[in-house]
Amino acid sequence: MTITRIDIDDEALAEAMRMLGTSSAEDAVNTALREYVARVERIAPGS
Questions:
Q1: How far is CA 38 from the centre of its chain?
Q2: 15-42: per-residue pLDDT in tens?
Q3: For the segment 6-16, what is each residue's pLDDT rounded down to a tens digit?
Q4: Which domain of life is it from (predicted)?
Q5: Which entry of 23, 25, 35, 46 is 20 to 30 Å from 17 by CA?
Q6: Domain assignment present for 1
Q7: Which of 21, 18, 16 lies closest to 36 in space, CA to CA?
């Protein structure tokens, strides 16, 4: 795993955590990234 320091909108993060059912920022970001990749793969395989 890589540690990356980025600025994230607090309100967007809180909303993502609520929607994803995660309890930490790290879990929210990782879950959101995995879900995004899976969604793109379904729409455009091999992208």
A1: 11
A2: 999 999 999 999 999 999 999 999 999 9
A3: 999 999 999 99
A4: Bacteria
A5: 46
A6: no
A7: 16
Q: Give residue 28's domain range.
A: 10-43
Are 22 and 43 contacting, i.e. CB atoms less than 8 angstroms apart? no
Residue 20 lies in a domain: yes
The answer to whether the beta carbons of residues 25 and 8 sit under 8 Å apart is yes
Task: Kindly state whether residue 5 falls inside one of the protein's structural domains.
Answer: no
Residue 20 contacts residue 32 (beta carbons within 8 Å): yes
With respect to residue 14, please indicate whether it lies within any of the assigned structural domains.
Answer: yes
CB 20 within 8 A of CB 33: no
Q: What Å distances lie between residue 25 and 1, 13, 36, 39, CA to CA?
A: 15, 7, 16, 21
